[in-house]
Design a protein that fits this description.
- This protein is α/β, with parallel strands linked by helices.
- It folds into two domains: 139 residues, no CATH class; 327 residues, Aldolase class I (TIM Barrel, Alpha-Beta Barrel).
- The strands form two sheets. The protein has a nine-stranded mixed sheet with strand order 9-8-7-6-5-4-3-10-11.
- Strand 10 and strand 11 form a beta hairpin.
- It is globular.
Length: 477
Amino acid sequence: MPNRIERTDNNRMLPVDSNTSSTVHSQVLKDIMAEVRASDSNALTERWADRDLEGHAGFALFVVKVASRCNLNCKYCYMYNLSDKSFRSQPKLMTDGTARLLIHRVRDHAYEHGIPDVSFLFHGGEPLLAHPSFYRHFVGLANAELQSIATANFYIQTNATQIDRDWIRLFCDLGIRFGISLDGPADVNDINRVDHQGQSSYGRVRQAIDLVLSDRNAPSLFTGVYTVVNPRTDPLEVYDHFRQIGVPAVDFLLPDGSHDLPPDAYTSVGLTPYSDWLKAVFDEWFTSHRSGPDLRMFRRVIGDLLGIRLPVYNMHMMGHIGPHNPNILVFETDGGIEPLDVLKACGSEFTKLGLNVHRNDIESAYNSRLIDEYITESRRLPTGCQQCEVRDICGGGTLPHRFGNNRRFDNPSVHCADLLDLIAHIRSRVSEALLHEQLPPGIADEPVGRLINDQITLHSPARPLRETKRHLSEAVS
């Protein structure tokens, strides 16, 4: 049903979702307004028309594939269960010698480009299959090599099945921030996240989370839970589960896929299955007065709608929504240098460049066609997105989700209709809350307050979804 338009007191036109009959009172929005008031009024979100497409400031986030194998067999995993099987030719674990060489390559690259902050994300496979001594060696050496050049930050993404008090102590000793993958309660999580015998992973992961949250120091390093949306499940059951167990934040991720191999929900669930699921969670989160985890995807969209880049920690979404910074480089267990690892979803050995830290420096990557595509296409909107109403918020979707063999990355996201529908819904709810509650006292007279009033009217109501589907079909044909 189309949106109706109501006029505010200052004569600005704001859209209101006609399916919503009650006034929206949002504590979430009040909290965000407080952040906006305290923020720099010049912290504008980046608009595509203003993006600098020349040059590259260097790579600053390095994904270190500590292990090429995993003790789980998640059905949607881009590493093992989509198009790419190159893990089979990789060493199972990275050696200390390879780690030492990659740290030297990163040190030289950071010096060459004047990069002040370097982040290492330990990844896999399952990175906790490596011995704890690997991390003590790596972190100690990286801090020593980079101390006069850049600040080194360390993160790990784990399925948490190996976490015990010894691992927690190591994270605390080394200052490694960590995220845990979990899809919800046992009946939801174990649809896709099982071991190689098809057995549940939930119990071990839940035990690890409880252990982390009961520790005196670990919660400050625990960045939250990363959850792949399954539209066949109950969204409120999943959200309420995370609220009950007390995780600090949840990142909802869209399943990986491309136009050549789209997620199967599009053929079996509905027109916008992921948006429908996420909208139910958003409405509960946005209007509830109960405390719960920070939902960073939604906070980012709200911030972008308001024209402000809110301080949202998000190491792992890596561009599902919003303009993308192509500053990620991957090191495989053998020392192979590759672009964004999720590009493995685009095809077999898609990310292989023939480069390796044992014989190449990082600057060599700039000679690769795929690295050039990664940098260029991450900064450029697909042709079919350039006139879209929500292009500055969606950003065309993450790069692998755009891929199709006919036009490479010059396609709207395979999740285009979902992203458009979700952003339009969030915009309507935020607009209605602003309309009825107005801005906090005094903020309307500040530059940020004027910015909010201006930015919230920039995007007209989203085109009907069937038109979007037709537009998307034309764009990728």
